[in-house]
Structures are given as structure tokens and as C-alpha cells.
Amino acid sequence: MLGSLRVFGRALLLTSLCLIAPMALAGMGASYLPNIPLITHEGEKVRFYDDLVADKVVAINFIFTDCPDTCPAETAKLLRVREALGDRVGDDIFMYSISIDPERDTPEVLANYREKFGIGPGWTFLTGNEEEIILLRKRLGLYMEEIQGDDGDHNVTFIVGNDRTGKWIKRSPFDNPISLANLIGYDLFDGQILRKNAKSYHQVPKAPEYSRGEYLFRTRCESCHTLNGGDQNRLGPDLLGVTERRDRSWLSRWIQEPDIMLEEGDPIATELYIQYKKLAMPNLRISEADAEALIEHMASQTDARRKRLAEASRRRLEAPAPN
């Protein structure tokens, strides 16, 4: 059984190489990709190449459901990609998550994992024989011998490809979801599908300058949480006003080590865990300084929202009465 300790920072470092220089993998097809047997989360027996990849545009990553940090964060991020692609997933685009811990990750376990994240059709979770899955990871270039171990550490880079054209690219699942959706939904189709709402270069806005806290929220938290006082069907609660609802020291520790607090039976952590389908908040290896930056950002957004509401109320009171 794989352990629960993970090295999130190292995994991000490894995947960042693909952000700098995405690598095309030419020549992958039936003669190269192992046609290994796999079982879907619905219990269906399939062959990797014949049934999942042949003549399709696909996105493939490897996870294990017992992972407390990298894998759930990766799944949450890719869920945003799936939302951006919409109904095309399951139609002309297919997403696959394959377990590296098939002994534990039975079809039933994988189905439960999908349900917790609210994943819709077109994204299939699969299990199979561990040695054959390792072979598949090696053929896809997603297996790094030097970081393999009993603690479950693994390369979290994922791969997207178009089997018809032979175009395959490795990317980080922690890249911007819209960029990933554009890569999968348009770039892999080599101009065969027109990009929706495309803008010319002179219409593209300048890149915003984010504070450290806002950058961390957008890259680490936004996949699961909103910060606007609404409910946009994220995996966790909206965080507007959280700095007023929770003690600041508790909040700082919760951001840094949620898994430890759950193990200790912290009552608030336990309540949140039960409330949100027993989907544990992942340990993202956030430092104390970065936790404080996140808290300051959330507090500033709460203050800004309060000022906007106060200003709107003042304007309503000062508005002349209708005749």
C-alpha cells in the first residue's frame, strides 16, 4: 500500500519544466503505446490503445486516491479544465486518470473519488495491473525512476495528444486552466476547429500585477474555492469573510497543515470535512509567510466587498425618490 507522505513542492518543480518548454512526442501510436488491459471506474474492461486512445484527442494523468495533497489538487485543477471544455469532453475530447495504486484503487474506490469531485461524463478513471501501468507511464515519459518510492512520490506531469496527427505534448496540470483548455481543445486540432471568442493581439489586455497573496490564491486555492460571497459550485466553501469567521492563528495553521489537523480531530476541520463530502483539503506545502499573505489577501477582499456594499447602500439612500 502506498503511504500518504508526498513532496508537493518537488512535484511542482518537476512539472514546471514542461511549462517552460512543452515537448512534442512524435511517433506515439499503436506500435509504441502498450495496449494494456485496464478497468474503468464503472467496472468495464478496456484496452489502453484500442479503446481509449486510437483516433482520439486525449488528456492523461496518473493519480492515487489516498494521496493527501498533490493528486486532489491536480484533480481539482483539471476539473476547471473540464469545465472550460464543456460538452466537448466525451464527444471529441477524452480525459483519463489512471491509478498508480491499483491494489487499493478498485473501480468502486475510483467511482467514489469521482463522485466527491462531481466529475461528469467523458473523464474516465482507470485501474489495472501495477507493473503494466508502470510500463505505460514509462512509454508516455511520465515515470521518473529517481523519485519513485514507497511514499507514493511520482511525476505529476500529464500528457495530452491527438492520436490521428501524432501530436503529443507534456504539460503541468497546475498550468492556467484556460490555457490548458485551449491547448487541448484547439491547438491539438491544428486549426480544424475555430477558436471561440478569439481576440486579436491588440485586444489582449496587459498581464495583471498580482500581490503575493492573490497569486497564491489564484494558483493554489481557486480550483476549490471562490472569494466573492457567492456559490459557484466549487469543491470547498466560499472564503469571503473567512478571516472574520475564523481565528487568525487557526486559519494560518489550517492553510499550512490541514491533514495534520484532521488527524488530530480538530472540531472545525472535522466539520468541514464532513460538510464537503469527506473531501479533505490537500496539504499544499504552504509556508507560514505564504499563509499570512493568503490571509491578508482574503481580508482585503472582504474589506473591499464591505466598502462596495456600503457605497451602494449610500447611493440608494441619496437617490431622489421616484415621482
Question: Which key features would you list for this structure?
Answer:
2 domains, Cytochrome Bc1 Complex, Chain D, domain 2, 12% strand, 12 helices, 323 residues, alpha+beta, single chain, 8-stranded mixed sheet, disordered N terminus, Glutaredoxin
Structure, explained:
The protein is α+β, with helices and mostly antiparallel strands. It has two domains: 8-194, Glutaredoxin (3-Layer(aba) Sandwich); 212-313, Cytochrome Bc1 Complex, Chain D, domain 2. The chain contains twelve helices and eight strands. It has an eight-stranded mixed sheet with strand order 1-8-7-4-5-6-2-3. β2 and β3 form a beta hairpin. The longest helix has 31 residues, at 288-318. Mean pLDDT is 84; it is low at 1-23.
Outline: globular
Number of domains: 2
Quick check: average pLDDT? 84
Pick out the low-confidence regions: 1-23
Q: What is the correct CATH architecture of the largest domain?
A: 3-Layer(aba) Sandwich
Radius of gyration: 22 Å
Strand arrangement in the largest pleated sheet: 1-8-7-4-5-6-2-3
Query: What is the top-level CATH class of the largest domain?
Result: Alpha Beta
Classify the fold: give the CATH topology of the largest domain. Answer: Glutaredoxin
- What does the main sheet amount to? 8 strands, mixed
Content-based structural category = alpha+beta
User: What's the CATH superfamily of the largest domain, by name?
Assistant: Glutaredoxin
Please tally the β strands and state the result: 8
H and E order: HEEEHEHEHEHEEHHHHHHH
How helix-rich are the residues, as a percent range?
A: 40-55%
- Can you count the helices? 12
Give the distance, in angstroms, between the N- and C-terminal Cα atoms: 74 Å
Strand portion: 5-15%
